[in-house]
Design a protein that fits this description.
By secondary structure, the chain is an alpha/beta fold. The protein folds into 4 domains: 125 residues, N-utilizing Substance Protein B Homolog, Chain A, CATH 1.10.940; 35 residues, no CATH class; 57 residues, Alpha-Beta Plaits (2-Layer Sandwich); 132 residues, Vaccinia Virus protein VP39 (Rossmann fold), CATH 3.40.50. The chain has 16 helices and 9 strands. The protein has a 5-stranded parallel sheet with strand order 7-6-5-8-9, with helices on both faces. The protein is globular. 35% of the residues are buried.
């Protein structure tokens, strides 16, 4: 069955299974942009991000209805149950009977009749609250309580409680579970914020200012099929990421080094700020990620960014730079609200810290006298 002919819930199930196998959510959703449009596009985003965000809580709710732990179930069954439970617990636009019915039909199609009967029994039980949920006791085990109720890895909750205390940890976990609006940065080479906002409105896309050069889009819908997108009038960029280039403040005609650049949101922002005049060396370890940067520079009309595949720790170029940006790889624990899949990935925090230090030390070698070095990371 082609992606174009699948319904959002079937695509969502495929994505959830692939994320479990190690794929990155954003890349999987990006790959669906051409195949699924408004309103199905919004529904797909909601289903996948919501199910991943609340995965631990959903597993806790589902477990009493199963003889075998979810971890020992077939991946498609496991994620189909999570998907159905998420809709029953958090979405009210679809009646519970319809949620159960669609899940059963999908289970029958991909896993067979016996599994479909199991899905029906489990989700009907969840829908009717046949086994009321009793969460862990907060006073006895605050780590387990917060890990389950806010759906975070136990190790992360324990780390945050040790570092910040229970109240701050609870606030951090609750913040992670609020999905932010998609934000876009107008391409200063081709438009202004006001003009872009007006053009999006003409195309039926609502956007509002959250900063002078940043717009929030409440419903993604057909944003990535819009004329404004195809004409390179904007880039997607988070509010935190959008703060970095103004701090670096590259000027027209300058030479800039952007380490760990892909997929290139900050590099293209620099080029726009520099009015496409100057030289930006954009390095990354992975050629496939630099291909995304090349596609973006072409769409945006950026001509002063030069990609280079290299391990930045061993960069060897015979020149210095006016400005250097180290947008270092990290655990992404500071942006879990943007990337719910990342909370379920194990990460080597100490190894990442060593890597970041090595990158900063290497970058410092390339800053010209009187130049600027900016170190940027969410974690």
């Amino acid at each position: 069955m082609s992606a174009a002919s699948k319904k959002p819930r079937h695509i969502a199930l495929d994505i959830l299974c692939r994320v479990e196998r190690g794929a990155y959510l954003d890349r999987l959703l990006d790959a669906q942009r051409e195949h699924i449009r408004d309103p199905d596009g919004d529904l797909l985003q909601h289903l996948v991000r919501g199910t991943l965000t609340y995965r631990a809580r959903l597993d806790y709710i589902l477990t009493p209805y199963l003889k075998k732990p979810l971890s020992r179930q077939h991946a498609k069954l496991r994620n189909l149950l999570r998907l159905g439970a998420y809709q029953l617990q958090y979405l009210d636009r679809v009646p519970p009977y319809a949620v159960v019915s669609e899940a059963v039909i999908l289970a029958r199609h991909i896993l067979g009749e016996p599994v479909a009967k199991l899905v029906n029994a489990v989700l009907r039980g969840v829908s009717e609250n046949r086994k009321p949920v009793v969460f862990p006791d907060f006073d006895r085990d605050p780590v387990e309580y917060l890990a389950i109720t806010t759906s975070h890895p136990r190790w992360l909750v324990a780390l945050w409680i040790k570092r910040y205390g229970i109240d701050e940890t609870r606030a951090l976990c609750e913040f992670d579970n609020v999905q932010p609006a998609l934000t876009i940065r107008p391409n200063a080479l081709r438009t202004t914020s006001d003009v872009l906002c007006e053009q999006l409105a003409v195309e039926g896309i609502e956007a509002e200012f959250v900063a002078p050069d940043l717009l929030a889009v409440s419903h993604v819908g057909h944003l990535f099929q819009s004329r404004a997108y195809c004409d390179g009038l904007f880039s997607v960029q988070g509010a935190g990421a959008a703060m970095v280039v103004p701090l670096l403040d590259p000027q027209p005609g300058e030479a800039v080094l952007d380490l760990c650049s892909a997929p290139g949101g900050k590099a293209t922002a620099m080029a726009e700020r520099m009015k496409n005049r100057g030289f930006i060396l954009a390095t990354d370890l992975y050629s496939r990620r630099l291909e995304i940067l090349k596609q973006n520079t072409h769409r945006l009309g950026v001509s002063c960014v030069y990609p280079l595949v290299v391990d930045a720790r061993y960069l060897a170029v015979n020149r210095l730079f006016d400005r250097v940006l180290v947008d270092a790889p990290c655990s992404s624990l500071g942006i879990l609200n943007h990337h719910p899949d990342l909370r379920w990935r194990e990460c080597d925090i100490h190894g990442l810290a060593r890597l970041q230090r090595a990158l900063i030390e290497r970058a410092a070698d390339y800053v010209c006298p009187g130049g600027v070095l900016v170190y940027s990371t969410c974690t």
